[in-house]
Specification:
Elements lengths: L6 H17 L5 H9 L3 H6 L6 E5 L4 H14 L4 E3 L7 H8 L13 E5 L5 H7 L4 E4 L7 H4 L2 H14 L3 E5 L3 H4 L9 E7 L10 H5 L14 E9 L2 E6 L2 E6 L5 H20 L16 H9 L7 E7 L2 E7 L3 H10 L5 E6 L23 E2 L1 E3 L3 H10 L3 E2 L2 E2 L2 H8 L5 E6 L1 H14 L12
Helix pairs in contact: 1-2, 2-5, 4-11, 4-12, 6-8, 11-12
């Protein structure tokens, strides 16, 4: 019999969680308290899931990819538990589990899908080796927190070697692709992109000589899923030898590649779980390539990751950016014609104190910037000026800047670091009553 969670720990966690919801803050606090009370809580909870646990890790795209997988699996009939608030430390995952656990300590779900911070993923894996690991990419990120890419690669390698059933890797990222040699009995799957769309996915190396073009290669011959094309809001995928084209719920080629990762991840789960489609309550679950690809294509973006608001008759899109590759990819993928642009940059611990990375971004697709704001607004404005861009105004006051930015008839795009995204999103949710957003989920 699988071990249940301690009822005492569950009661304490649920009590703290109720208080946090009333205060609309402290999403991860319940998990931190439970973790201190019961160090085996995470393993006891996740060990009850019959289809296992998948962790999604990498420099860019974790939140979106985890959402694509978890929502698609829900739509396909599975009971999924996930950390959809974006709290991606172990305590955040425990906080996400608590609402689903019964007072007696049972977790009545089928599978867990969790995004994990690169530095915390190895901690999670030591407490509970995941059934599946999906690794998206390995790029330079917060230098003051992670160091250079070699340290990020080392963290991700520990995740890859911990997977017990399935390992899903980005075949288009050389550092990630070679993690396949670390699989210890896990079934390895790759996803990739076609050379025709390679220019949409620059690497750190490509940013050094961006005007000379992005290096390309043929997609991995073993790839289970290949992104073949990106045409406006449509994407085409080759899945198990067949090509499918869909209008996507998410926008931008970088999110289309996340969708390819999600499809590959779900198909890997199906490959590792013979009971799906055949036995018990899983008999009616259809995880065929077409059904999976279609379900993924319908999922809407996670909060702050291409999320859209309706303000004063205009569409306002929020795009999270936090490193050179992610920002460059977003600027290449999102149409900016006839849209006002704002850039918001903070340097809180969650953003990374070192903002020198902004000088490595390729701004060639960006021309006029209406507003720049955030704690490092002047640094961002100076960087844009050095790159020959026209910045109308820079202001440290985000609330005032946002109010000014929202004036005018054009649709709008906000490129924002993490903590500035949370602050701006809170204001936008209060203005767009149709969203019905959960401010607590964004804490």
């Amino acid at each position: 019999m699988k071990k249940k969670c301690s009822p005492l720990s569950v009661a304490a966690g649920k009590g703290v969680q109720k208080a946090c919801r009333l205060l609309k803050r402290g999403h991860s606090l319940p998990g931190m308290i439970v973790e201190k009370m019961d160090k085996g809580f995470l393993a006891s909870a996740l060990g009850q899931l019959p289809l296992g646990t998948m962790i999604v890790c990498g420099t860019n795209g974790k939140t979106t990819t985890a959402r694509l997988i978890s929502q698609a699996l829900k739509d396909l009939g599975l009971k999924v538990v996930t950390n959809d608030s974006g709290a991606n430390f172990t305590r955040g995952i425990i906080s996400s589990l608590l609402p689903h656990i019964t007072p007696s300590g049972k977790l009545p779900c089928d599978i867990g899908i969790f995004e994990l911070d690169e530095a915390w993923a190895p901690v999670f894996c030591r407490q509970f080796p995941p059934s599946y690991a999906l690794i998206l990419n390995c790029s330079r990120d917060q230098l003051d927190r992670y160091g250079e890419r070699d340290s990020v690669e080392s963290m991700l390698a520990k995740v890859a070697s911990s997977a017990t059933r399935g390992l899903i890797l980005n075949g288009g990222d050389e550092r990630v692709r070679r993690f396949s040699s670390l699989a210890r009995g896990a079934k390895v799957s790759f996803y990739d992109f076609d050379p025709a769309v390679a220019s949409l996915f620059p690497r750190d190396e490509d940013l050094i000589c961006m005007r000379q073009g992005v290096s390309s290669k043929a997609p991995d011959a073993e790839a289970a899923v290949v992104l073949k094309g990106a045409f406006g809001d449509r994407a085409s995928f080759e899945v198990a030898g067949k090509e499918f084209s869909f209008e996507m719920g998410v926008e931008g080629s970088f999110n289309f590649l996340n969708a390819a990762a999600a499809i590959a991840g779900i198909l890997n789960i199906e490959k590792c779980c013979p009971e799906i489609g055949k036995e018990g309550r899983f008999k009616s679950i259809d995880l065929s390539p077409k059904s999976v690809a279609e379900a993924v294509s319908k999922v809407k973006p996670a909060f702050g990751r291409g999320e859209e608001f309706r303000i004063r008759g205009s569409k306002v899109k929020m795009v999270l950016v936090k490193n050179p590759v992610g920002f460059s990819s977003a600027l290449r993928a999102i149409p900016l014609q006839d849209r006002d642009v704002m850039v918001a940059l903070n340097d809180e611990s969650a953003d990374g104190r070192d903002v020198s990375w902004i000088y490595d971004v390729d701004y060639s697709n960006l021309s006029k910037i209406k507003d720049v704001t955030g704690e490092r607004a002047f640094d961002m404005a100076l960087c844009l000026e050095y790159n020959g861009k026209d910045v109308r105004k820079a202001d440290l006051d985000m609330s005032k800047s946002l109010s000014d930015f929202l004036e005018g008839p054009h649709d709008k795009v906000i490129f924002s670091s993490y903590t500035s995204m949370l602050s701006l999103r809170k204001i936008l949710l209060e203005m767009d009553k149709s969203k019905g957003g959960d401010l607590y989920a964004a804490d």
